[in-house]
Task: structure prediction
Amino acid sequence: MPTVTSVAPATRAWLAVAALGAGLLHAALAPSAPLPALIVLVAIGAAELTWAAATFARERPPLLQASLYLALLPVALWAAVASAGAATGTGTILALQPLPLAVASGLDLAVAATVAVVLRRRRPARDSGAVRFVLTLLVSAAVVSGVTIPALGLTSAGLSAVSVHLQHSGHH
Result:
């Protein structure tokens, strides 16, 4: 069976933007997390942001086959922590906002699903032109921004950004 040697630019744009959104959310959740979760969230966020940049820059996303499973890792970790919290009766998910975690998980699932489709097709990428690439980039950026920005606003980093802005009311 042939292997995937490259991924269409439009598909890479979608993968990169979705991973960027998930990485930003994981990084924004880190400051309000306890130390062990902070370390995990920073590591996951940094990995997603690095992968997003590399995916956008290369013809083939790095670790394409492994990224199918790596994109699901944060979702599995969140599910494990939520299950452990429910089982112990604390009812918390490390006291982190659930909506940003859910949005990041949704973006990670979208990355995994897209990678699965790319791997399943196993055919060489076609360059469908600049117009399709730009349209895909615009639509994916709009969709990811539309779900990521409100979720970022619910993180401690997002709430701090609003309060800092309000403290500096000299700008009009």
Notes: Residues 9-167 form one domain. DSSP finds seven helices and no strands in the chain. The chain has a mean pLDDT of 84.
